[in-house]
Fold this sequence. Notes:
Strand content: 15-25%
CATH architecture of the largest domain: 3-Layer(aba) Sandwich
CATH class of the largest domain: Alpha Beta
Shape: globular
Number of helices: 15
Strand order of the largest sheet: 4-10-9-8-7-5-6
Largest sheet: 7 strands, mixed
Amino acid sequence: MHAPDDALPSTPDDAPAGWSDPDRLRSAAARHLWPHFTPADQSARGDLPVFVRGEGVELWDADGKRWLDGLAALFTVQVGHGRRDLLQKAVDRAGDLAYFPLWGAANAPAVELAERLAHLAPGDLDRVFFGTGGGDSVEAAWKLARSYFAAIGKPRKYKVLSRVGAYHGTSLGALSITGMTGIRHMYEPLVPGAVKVPSTNLYRAPVHADDPVAFGAWAADQVEATILAEGPDTVAAIFLEPVQNAGGSLLPPPGYLQRVREICDRHDVLLVSDETICGFGRTGAMFGCERFDVVPDMITCAKGLTSGYAVLSAVIASERIFEAFRAGGGQFVHGNTWGGHPVAAATALANLDLFDELGLVEHVAATEGAFGDAMRGLGDLELVGDVRGVGHFWTVEVVADRATRRPIVADADGRHVADVIRAAVLDAGLHCRVFGSGSSVIQLCPPLISDQGVFDEIEQVLRAALEKGAAAC
């Protein structure tokens, strides 16, 4: 399934002039491009791979090297690369209107997409507010939660809870919700009112490490204890990814999300499911919250909404939240130029059409076991401490010592081994997240069209790289 017959990739013959000159591209990148989350000296050296073409699960860089995309670019390209059929359908669907904003008006593709997302989302999540990215949707959702409580006469409810180590975006509001201290400290003080609760990292659980149910109950109870300590009349929302990405595919223990839902209901706190990564089939369900049988008050989503073929995000909110504004004759005072762009919305619609045509959600559910078996097979290697995941979203945690579970990047010797592993993965042409942001995990999140051949290739590359790492110890 990973190379659909109707995927029409770019070819060297139709590439823009100059794209066939890798030296020129690298030189220009070194002089002018400022990459995201990349050390400045690395980008200035001019040795970053420059990708020019994609087809299905494969990528080619300017040097002609073939790569396997084990990360869906950035947890994004669900339907695979090179789908010119998707782009053509999007252009046709957008029609004669290249652009019109959602300020006091609407455009037809945005209306159609809002209706479709409302039908796909669980419960009464029937109102869709469009934006431009995952962090943007998180920012909007926090503002929406605060505005909602102000609209119903509870303006003191402004605080937001999120989990330690979680990533929710980089704008100042979203960064305040983000729990990764390493990317926060240089921007402090951040927006006040963002409070952290424990993650669901069972592998490094401080209590009940041998009992997932008890650990989940403990973690949920910490949410309630934090709400009570902050004051229930001050807490507006909690943001949770169904499966936490940062830290490496941290699964919710059995009963955890349901217990958090009960706690939120008890204290009038909105539950926001951040599905920037978990949404649109990644977990084997359309939305991650559905996979784990919980209905939130809001879903934030982006990435897989368009499979990266256009820039778009959404907050899908409960009808009762919208009603609070309508009942008071008010409005949600927030917006931007590009949210609900007609071409982006048409692209999302074409992307969702492909989901149906290819049966992607069902395909992920059917092949989850095969991917998991391939990854769990790496557990026989001495550097592998844990393997965990769901759907097409898996993580291999690498440790310097299995007995103590010491992270591979905990000391200089371990970081040297990590560098050997990272270099081996890159040399083999596997694009994935290897020890990102100083972590000790390798994250795999390929396009949802991936099949057994893709899983086996990922396993073979990682096995060889981890064996090289073990030899370097």
